[in-house]
Amino acid sequence: MSQLSLPTTIAFVIYVMIVLAIGIYAYSKTKDASDYFLGGRKLSPLVAAISAAASDMSGWILLGLPGYAYVAGLEAAWITLGLTIGVAANWILVAKRLRIYTEMLDDAVTLPAYLQRRFQDSKVWLKSIAAISILLFFLFYVASGLIAGGKLFNVVFGFDYYIAVFVGVILILFYTLFGGFLAVSWTDVFQGSLMLIALIAVPTLVAFNLGGGSAVVAQIDGVNPQLLNMFTDAAGEPLGWMAIIGLLGWGFGYFGQPHILARFKAIRSADETSKATIIGVSWASFGYLTAILVGLCGIAYLNEPLADPEKVFITLTSLVFHPLVAGILLAAILAAIMSTVDSQLLVCSAALAEDLYPLMVKRSLSPEARMKIGRIAVVVLAMVASGLAMDPESKVLDVVSYAWAGLGASLGPAILISLYWRSMTSQGALAGVLVGAVTVMVWSQLSGGIFDMYELVPGFILSSIAVVLVSLSSPAVSDAVGNEFDKMRTKLRGRA
User: Fold this and answer.
1) Which of 117, 227, 389, 458 has the fewest Cβ atoms surrounding its Cβ within 10 A?
2) What is the pLDDT along the chain (496 residues), one digit of tens a residue?
3) pTM score, two decimals?
4) How many CA atoms lie within 13 A of 305 on its CB side?
5) Three-state SS annotation for 167-197
6) Burial bucket for residue 53 (CB in 10 Å: 0-12, 13-18, 19+)
7) Is the CB of residue 170 less than 8 Å from the CB of residue 281?
């Protein structure tokens, strides 16, 4: 049902105008492919940290995660814990090394290019398979954002779902096409701030209206006391070890998310990663916590169960705030969607323009040509993802979980181990990417017993084992590869 009002419309229009203005300004600062895909490696620690968090917090942080907490109660805290540990480990273990290594390896812009140059691999398989893995799973990730956008415009403005998806694509394409990475990163700061304000404001006002935090807890206890126990599900059944490990295992996904790792590569100095780590981890963990609180407040505040739990944030916002304020807060959902989808489209276009297209035409391209190909790729990929998003019954969290698992299991172990292990080989990296991707695709189709565990966990473990075993059974790395790794490690220690 449409809840369209003039104040809500005004708030949305102001938001869109700000975002588009940032895109136009960033266009004037984007000169070549390095600027377009990685911002010329000039991001400040603050921008890099908030942009990484905002690009992570897609529509699922305002729709999927609150919806899960609304249905499952404190069981959702396990996901929050796993994600918090994951984002901290990613910043601590990966950020500084990836920033230094990619710059030294002939300014590697993409992860496939990094892997190829890290092992001085003359064959095309590792680079191609890694790029294809990014394209495959990111299309589902982008689709999840468009699904969230469709739900938002459908509920707030009464737009037909399919038209709503199209409107979201057009808005995202505008500033992604023109401004590239700079537009994406600068808008992430604005959008990330809006998202965090919304996640704080909604549970705060709901709790105030109910009489405080203790009243919220009492209301939830009256609905179903099992929702307050993080060791049981909503039916009161104890959570098994597989379920808990599966929920905590969401944190493994961070090591293989190209749109997040891109912020590590783009920070202006490796020496500033420590400052960015503090900002990024604090920002992300607070966002996850407040998203859970939104779902719990929905249990306490709403008298009738929602047909679609993922609309709990939208529903609460519409009920407890003035239409103008509600419009601003609901724009945060659009901010969450856009801040992630734009990053993902940019990573996909980089994989095509930087990694796959030159292999197909069998020649190198100028920076200007690569930027042009990247912009064309953004449009094509957005249209394909729109097709995947055309089911209004799709659940945002379900689609995100599959894409998150695919990227985390296929790329995560290869990237993480390559930063630390001198003897890792290109054959080991290729085996890890393939085993991780195949495990996720097969495991997700099975059910019962151990197969109920989130597919990211077995995918990450088996991929890591494949990297190690195949590397050990492969010919030893050449002196050139080993010496290059030693140089990178020496530079890292020099900055420590």
Assistant:
1) 117
2) 444 567 777 777 787 777 767 666 766 665 655 555 555 577 788 888 887 887 777 667 888 899 999 999 999 999 999 999 999 999 999 999 999 999 899 888 889 999 999 999 888 899 999 988 988 888 887 887 788 778 777 777 777 888 878 877 777 776 566 555 666 666 677 777 877 888 899 999 999 999 999 999 999 999 999 999 999 999 889 988 888 998 999 999 999 998 889 888 888 888 888 999 999 999 889 999 999 999 999 999 998 888 889 889 988 988 888 887 887 777 777 766 766 676 677 777 777 777 777 767 666 666 667 667 777 777 787 888 888 888 777 776 678 888 899 999 999 999 999 999 999 999 999 999 999 999 999 999 887 778 888 999 999 999 999 999 999 999 998 899 999 999 999 988 875 5
3) 0.84
4) 6
5) HHHHHHHHHHHHHHHHHHHHHHHHHHHHHHH
6) buried
7) no
Residue 173 C-beta-side C-alpha neighbours within 13 Å: 18
Task: Tell which phi-psi region holds residue 107, choosing left (phi > 0), alpha (psi between -120 and 50) or beta.
Answer: left
Dump the DSSP string for 344-406: HHHHHHHIIIIIIHHHHHTS---HHHHHHHHHHHHHHHHHHHHHHT--TT--HHHHHHHHHHH
SS3 call for 488: helix
Taking residue 450's Cβ as centre, other Cβ atoms within 10 Å add up to 9
| Separation of alpha carbons 328 and 323, rounded Å | 9
Phi-psi domain of 448 (left: phi exceeds 0; alpha: psi -120 through 50; beta: other): left
For the record, the structure tokens of 249 come out as 């295992």
| Angstrom distance (rounded) from CA 124 to CA 359 | 8
- 376-381 long-range contacts (CB < 8 A, ≥24 apart) are 377/348, 377/349, 377/352, 377/353, 378/173, 378/176, 378/177, 378/345, 378/346, 378/348, 378/349, 379/173, 379/177, 381/135, 381/138, 381/139, 381/142, 381/345, 381/348, 381/349, 381/352
Q: What is the SS3 assignment for 351?
A: helix
What is the rounded radius of gyration, in angstroms, for the C-alpha atoms of the chain?
22
Asked whether the beta carbons of 277 and 271 are under 8 A apart, the reply is no
* Length of the chain as a residue count: 496
Structure tokens at 272: 């500033």
Structure token digits, residue 115: 């892997």
Give the CB-side neighbour count of residue 402, counting CA atoms within 13 A. 20
Can you read off the two tokens belonging to residue 410?
């296929």
Q: How far is 459 from 298, CA to CA, in rounded Å?
A: 34
Q: What token pair was written down for 37?
A: 């895909």
Which pair of structure tokens corresponds to residue 467?
């990297």
- Of 277, 230, 279, nearest to 80 by C-alpha is 230
